[in-house]
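Exam revision sheet. Question 4 asks you to relate a sequence to its structure. Input first:
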Amino acid sequence: MGESRVKFGPFIRIVEVYFCAVVITVLGYALLMPAGNFDYDITLLRIMAVMVAAARSVWLIEKRAESTRRFVVVSMSVVVVLSVLDMVFGGEYGRIAEVVTMPVLVTGGIFYFGGSLAIIAYFALSPHAKEVFVEPVDGSAKPVHDASEDIYEKPFTWPWFRNLGIYYFSFSIMGHWAEIGFCWLIVLGVVMGDYDFTHAQLWEWWLCPYPAEGIAVVLIALLLFPFKEWVLKKTGGRVWLTLIISFIVNMLVCATIDFTTGITANANFELWDYRDLPFNFMGQIVLQNTLVYSVAATFIVWVVYPLMAKWLHRMPRHRANGLFIGFASFYLFLEVLYYVHIGPTGIVFG
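Answer key, structure tokens:
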């Protein structure tokens, strides 16, 4: 019989409940906070750190990972420092003092900072914690690969789903920045179109996710890259012919995604209106934009996606899983903050 594992004990279970409560509290904060009132300041940085640290800590604790103690101590120390800075310089103290009495504020501060310091001390010094968290997570050594390896994960396995999630989360956020860059091309007169600097979702909410861009990159991983590889094989490795065919197919897919997004999210032309531009279709898509998107998609198909796939494949699995948890928790916070809110009739989406 194998050696029995050391039991968690009540304190670790309490810490787990605490971290889960932190995640729920942060999501509740995002639900109640109007997006227009949320500033990009130290409060955002603190919330990001709290959300990611709590979510990943729960995962590491359940895995009994040997890196749990180090991660909890470092991440909780960072959270405590950011909390102090936010209270002193970020105005969080004044905001809390406006809605609670001084005894409640002091009591809450004692529990928050006292509890955080107790968690740090326990995971740093407790012999019991040293006995519990000893398991390697998914193999901690960096994998060794040769030049002929298949860097693309087997479909319908956890690494495959995990990587698709990372592509979706990251490009949904970066896609927003790409939209800002494209709008600046309009501002500078490089391409035709109108712009509106009062559009808060684009110009002020820099982290507001644009899911269409994330979905596009997932489709690249699932369809467009495999199609490019198939055409390359069928053409006997003729790169230029494959590149032309790949670009045309990418353009059709980009136009379809753009048009579908338009008729569902922009039916009343509140977000964009191309009706006055040449070569538009129903005011939702226009040729110049489709060409720009197609160039970007082709670059991702041929360069960005293979590099990301190789990077994730060669990353130790526990780090890739941790990256997924960090992205997923942060993305969930952003989705709730910007797309879900409480209105007079209840919870409103969009």
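Marking note for examiners. The two ends are 55 Å apart (CA to CA).
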